[in-house]
Amino acid sequence: MLKYFNDKIFREDLDTQDQMYLYFYSPGCGPCVEVHPKVDQFGKSTNNIVYMVRDDDAPELQKQLQVTAYPSMVLVKNKKVSRAGLGAQEVINMIEDGKSN
Q1: Whether the bond into 31 is cis, omega within 30 of 0
Q2: Engineering a disulfide at 49: which of 20, 32, 53, 54 sits with its beta carbon 3.0 to 4.6 angstroms away?
Q3: What pLDDT was estimated at residue 30?
Q4: Integer distance in angstroms from the first to the last C-alpha of the chain?
């Protein structure tokens, strides 16, 4: 299930979902533009929530999760970071792993 970041809804989902993905991106980032369609497709095809978090959204959350560059993806399981990846290839790897689980 693909969602664009909204703090209130994110907090509700964090309390009710066992697992979710957070994809951090910047519209002007070349690697982000490359991987964005793959994240979009994954979000539409998985039962897990995939949040699209733009670079200027959720600065406190990005700081808390230590997101320092784009694209980045964080897998949250039971309110804890289970895995984090930086760069287009790592985001693609996480998507592929998510498809097989």
Answers
A1: no
A2: 20
A3: 96
A4: 15
